[in-house]
Structures are given as C-alpha cells and as structure tokens.
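*Target chain*
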Amino acid sequence: MSKSAFITIAGRTNAGKSSLLNALIGEKIASVSNKPQTTRTRITGIKNIGDTQLVFFDTPGIHKPKNKLSEHMLNTVKESVSDIDAVVFMMDCTKKPVEQEIQLLKSFNNNKMPVILVLNKIDLLDNMSSLASIISNLTSEIKFEAVIPVSVKNNNGVDLVQEEILKLATDSLHYFPSDMITDQPEKVLAAEMIREKLLMLLSDEVPHGIAVGVETMTEREDKDILDITATIYCEKDSHKGIVIGKNGSMLKRASTAARIELEDFFRIKVNLQCWVKVKEDWRNREALIRSFGLSEK
C-alpha cells in the first residue's frame, strides 16, 4: 500500500528552511540567500522514497509585517499549516527563540499538530553542550515528535529529519507523478533563480524591493537553446541604477550567474535577456502583488 505525508517547513526568516527543502528533495527548487524574507510564497517540493511520497511546503519566514506584501507572506504561512500531517519547525540554534515562535509552537500543540523541531546551524556553535539547555527549555514548554540538531550547510543530520518524517506517513494514494519534484511552473523557477542572484549581489536596502517576472521562455526549433526574457522590477529610480550598475556591470554579473544555474537546472544552453523597470511602491499595491504571483490567493 502506498503512503504519503504532507509537511510544512516553518520558522523565522534565515533559519534555513529553503536550504533544508533543497537538501531533502535533492534538487534546488527554492531560492537561498543570507537576506531575510528570501522566500515570498509557498513552494512545494515532492520526494518519492519507495512506496512513500513526501510533499513539503516551504513557507516565508515568520517576521513582523511592514507592508502589504509582508501581510500576504504571513497569510501564506498560516494557510500552509492547515490540512497537513505535520510541521517541521526550524530554529537557528545560535539565536534565542522569540515569543512569536513560542506562541506558534504552542498553537500547534493545542491543535494536536505533530511537530518535528530542527535546530539548524550547529556548525556555528562554539560549544555543543549549549544545545542541551536550548533543548531542555523548549521541551519543558512544548511537545515535539522529535528534536534534531542539524547543519543543513554541511548536510549533517538531514537524513535523520527524513527518517522522522517517514514515520508520520499514512496509507494514501500519491497525489503527484513519481518524476515530479515541484509544482512550481518553469517560469516561476527561472524568475526565482534570477532574483536569488540579485539578492546575493546587491546591498541590503535594494533586494526587498525587487520582483522578477519571466516574460517569455521558448526553446528554439533549430537549436538546443532556451531563450528567456525577464524583467526585473524595483521600487525607485535610484534602485534601478544600482541593479544595472556602472556600464551595466551589476546586471551582467547577476544575469551571467543566473544563466549558469538555469543551464544546470534545465539541462540546456540558455540565452537570458534581462531588463530593469521601476514600479514605485509595488509592495503596497495589491494588483502588482497579484501580477507577480505573490498573493496567497
């Protein structure tokens, strides 16, 4: 009999949720950077292990909303913890838990939602013995199915997380084809790869105000080349200048890095053309948030 489990990966921004999803799936389907709020929408990852299908939902990080986009992101988190089998809750073990995290974990307990606690970034700890007090404090207040210290960066402990998740699978039909690893459209995957490179390269004040839309994505009939045209949207003219860079240098660096990753993912030579446009204050404009696919609806 086949089995399945639907799992939401939740936690604060920069806890390593997207990195864990990519590690569990074995392919990069979620953008990763050291900037907060890299993930803006719910991303679905699918992994088949024998007769069991695991379906993961990577969610935006828990944060204090500052604009309409932030509100949509938090609504996505709330919607992603309903009608699922369990939550993998990630914490950065180098940071003290905040009240928002504790209250959310208690709400899971109140709703009898199984929770696996993953304490990430153990590679950054000077003394592993400090983990004991962290675990003791959390388990005194909250019930967990398992508590697993990991370093996703070093792929240390990820297999233990998978083992615990497999225990929660129940008899069920599989909801996705066996060769499918995500439900994200190819254009969305491409746009996120481009945005990730911009996040990595740009200064702190610019990335949050950036969205990327892939306008066209077509494979040539006469050659094995994938032509992709993308538009990078920012909120200010000054940000547009930063994105483009002196003599187009920043845009070229980001486009080149994105093209290399796109070629690796799609297994085909890519011709990537990127343009930059200004959409002032788009993060507070509902119509634009929806047009960029960033609304939870």
Summary: The chain has a mean pLDDT of 82. The CA atoms of residues 87 and 115 lie 5 Å apart.
